[in-house]
Amino acid sequence: MADLTLEDIAKQAGVSRSTVSRVVNNHPNVSEKVRKRVLEVIQSTGYHPNIAARTLASHHSWMIGLVVPRSVSSFFTDPYFPHLTQGIANGCNQHDYTLGLFLVDTKEDEDKIIRRVSRSGLLDGILVQAGHHGDQVIDRLVQSDLPLVVVGRPFQPKNVSYIDIDNVNAAYNAVSHLIRLGYQRIGTITGPKESSVGIDRLEGYRKALIDRGRTVDETLVTEGDFTEAGGYYAMQRLLSAKPDAIFAASDIMAVGAMRTTLEAGLHIPDDIAFVGFDDVQLANHREPLLTTIRQPFHQFGVSAVEILIDLIENGTEPTRRIMMGTELIIRESCGASHR
């Protein structure tokens, strides 16, 4: 019976389509009792996955698009995106969907990609990465009427589903840690101030200082762009303000800022302590090891896919808003062991 679908198997086994998908893909999060029942149905029916047959029978393409408003070069050089994409790809694999990647760099790219992903029958739903200058892409994708989940809080959330980490609370925890260690002149290298992530992490920085009776010294606040070079030059601007600690809104900016610090003949953490954000691989392969905020990249990506599948299967109303937690990872760069 080659024309059977996952829904047919799910109905006969008395489980959800997603559970059948997990069994077919040998995912571990299925009880042995349920796995055995599904496998018995599969064996008795002679079912085997067939993408073309499933598409015709269900009127689904079983394909999800990930739209990223970034250039190809920045997508592959910023370690955040490979981590995020891996989590999303794992989520697609768990639920038997194919992932299509669309990078938007120029206005011409935007026009072509919007037309392509909006084409009837190509995609079942869209994930789009939020970011500075990204809301225009989001607005146009919303008009396509395809199920849509924004990865990260949109600059203007409007009536759209999204998943994000709690950036305000994460930054608050990072700066609070530096305050507890006794640092007095805590600076920050922000993300782009026209992006929601830049705004939220700066808000967490300010809130941590104010809640502890500190004055926010604007000479200790400078903007970065989530690149190593951006962190390097931002730190050059901050040195004259004589900070004794820095919260950088990304690990890659922290790495650039630490390089500036060392080139100036200063020591880390004795002269200036550092806390980053993301916990990408380079964070624990530096000397000194970087204290940072760990993002749950894998679960974040999987959850984004599951929210989108929920929209595809159950409708886009009401909108879904999911906020995930983070974890402070204490290593050498903050000087905790010295204080």
Q: How many domains comprise the coordinates?
A: 3
- Taking the alpha carbons of the first and last residues, their distance comes to 69 Å
* Mean pLDDT over the full residue set: 86
If you compute it from the alpha carbons, what radius of gyration comes out, rounded to the nearest whole angstrom? 23 Å
The oligomeric status of these chains comes to single chain
Report the principal-axis shape: elongated
Question: Biggest sheet, in brief?
Answer: 6 strands, parallel
Q: Assign the CATH architecture of the largest domain.
A: 3-Layer(aba) Sandwich
Q: Could you give the order of strands across the largest sheet?
A: 2-1-3-4-5-11
- Percent helix, as a range, is 40-55%
- Would you count the extended β strands for me? 12
- Residues in β-strands, percent: 15-25%
Stretches where pLDDT is under 50 for at least 5 consecutive residues are none
Walk me through this protein's architecture.
The chain has 339 residues and is an alpha/beta fold. It has 3 domains: 6-58, lambda repressor-like DNA-binding domains (434 Repressor (Amino-terminal Domain), Orthogonal Bundle); 63-165 and 297-325, Rossmann fold (3-Layer(aba) Sandwich), CATH 3.40.50; 167-295 and 328-338, Rossmann fold (3-Layer(aba) Sandwich), CATH 3.40.50.2300. It has 13 helices and 12 strands. Helix 1 (6-13) crosses helix 3 and helix 11 (228-238) crosses helix 12 (251-263). The longest helix has 18 residues, at 297-314. The chain is elongated and about 70 Å long. It starts with 5 loop residues before the first helix and ends in a 10-residue tail after the last strand.
